[in-house]
């Protein structure tokens, strides 16, 4: 039995007839049939598609149809799906997707929403709130994160791998340091010593920035992420510039209290 679904939107003009039908899995399926193709028809179609703030999906019926789909900005998803339209029931067709601002912008928006869900500003802003979150994180399973250590002339560089879907907090730095987001995507909030929070948003690698002293960061890694910080070892004798002296070095550069735990 084929269930006919009522279109959420229908548009008919001299260039095309179109309908947009919600599928059982939540996807919005577009069906556009052209009376005539022209630059104006393409422009009008794009304006219509851009009136939706969500992805649009379409079934590619054949290579001839693919030419028009590609010209409109659709890209293949790699999936094959059945088509609910009369006469097409039960047939498998390749699926294509249209994202108004492009795939990267759509993913970034989704990351922003996920980051705000895990890191609500109101829960972070205020004296002692990050520390309360940190104590709660200690009750959860430890993430499989790793740290590598590098030493050069008077400089200690710390490379940390953060697995995807990890919530973490960091040490407060005693120094003004250089921070490098080598790879990955991570939402970050920075909290100063008075408890004032600043939403740094979603950071996408590669990026280089500086971190002021006494800033505590809390983050959520949307993808596997690699973070690097460099610190001056001025004040520590050179014979202690090595991995065996990490406890001394960390006391020199950090206000202790880091947790890195899985969500």
Give a structural overview.
The protein has 263 residues and is of the alpha+beta class. The protein has two domains: 9-100, Aminopeptidase; 119-262, Jelly Rolls (Sandwich), CATH 2.60.120. Helix content is 22%, strand content 40%. It is built from six helices and 18 strands. It has a six-stranded mixed sheet, covered by helices on one side. The chain has a five-stranded antiparallel sheet with strand order 7-8-16-11-14, with no helix packed on it. A hairpin with a 5-residue loop joins β2 and β3 (28-34). The model is unreliable at 258-263 (pLDDT under 50).
CATH homologous superfamily annotation of the largest domain:
Jelly Rolls
Q: Would you identify the regions where 5 or more consecutive residues have pLDDT less than 50?
A: 258-263
N to C succession of SSEs: EEEHEHEEHHHEEEEEEEEEEHEE
Q: How is the main sheet built?
A: 6 strands, mixed
Query: What is the helix fraction of residues, given as a range?
Result: 10-25%
**How many angstroms separate the termini?**
43 Å
The number of distinct helices, counting runs of at least 4 residues, comes to 6
Form type: elongated
> In CATH terms, what is the architecture of the largest domain?
Sandwich
Binned strand content? 35-45%
Strand order of the largest sheet: 1-2-3-4-6-5
- CATH fold name of the largest domain: Jelly Rolls
The structural domain count equals 2
Instruction: Please tally the β strands and state the result.
Output: 18
Q: Which structural class should the secondary elements be placed in?
A: alpha+beta
What is the CATH C-level name of the largest domain?
A: Mainly Beta
**Average of per-residue pLDDT values:** 87
The Rg value, from CA coordinates, equals 26 Å
Q: What oligomeric state do the depicted chains represent?
A: single chain
